[in-house]
């Protein structure tokens, strides 16, 4: 026998806040990405700052051609993050593609869906981070092949950085890049850092380098910037979070406006 339960209307609608969280960061990441979302939950997300993710199609191997194929997906990827609502910043989380597609082209594609919102790429964020640290001479470590690394070397050189040493690991699958053990990242970082460099940049949002950046700094005595550390730092500062968090690395002690 069914008992009819009385359902009582509350009598008024609830009061709504302007936003569930004060600040909102959008992430456009590769369908194959294992690392960015985890790093941002660890370094960026809080009870005042939400991180909202959209994944776009990507097919390995990491080549210029495959990286360029993501460009048409950027507008739709941005549009799917909280449709018709403003964000405080939006990140396209692929370093090698940012070089190949170009920071300005990425910004234009995202602004087609989310006009006026600050767009963060790992490359532009890394440049800003290296300048905030006062670095002019750098060493670079990438997980890519020589062919994929070459445009990145040119990118930093064209922006006025002196590259003392550029090391690449020869991988072509971003899922394998995500599986590089943290201890291996430490070992390769020590080898990649030239003594005369002001800082080390470790490229690729798939590589778990942000987790060990502070350890590398402790062992080498030099600042370390990684792709995800740089974009996380940029997003926090754009959202007004200026807290110094040296446990994440020297970059997290710097103002966004330094350098």
UniProtKB/TrEMBL annotation:
Pfam families on file: Amdase (PF17645)
Gene3D superfamilies with a match to the protein in the record: 3.40.50.12500
Superkingdom to which the source organism belongs: Bacteria
InterPro entries on file: Ectoine_EutA, Iso_Racemase_Enz_sf, MaiA/AMDase
PANTHER family per record: BLR3294 PROTEIN
Protein name: Ectoine utilization protein EutA
Gene: eutA
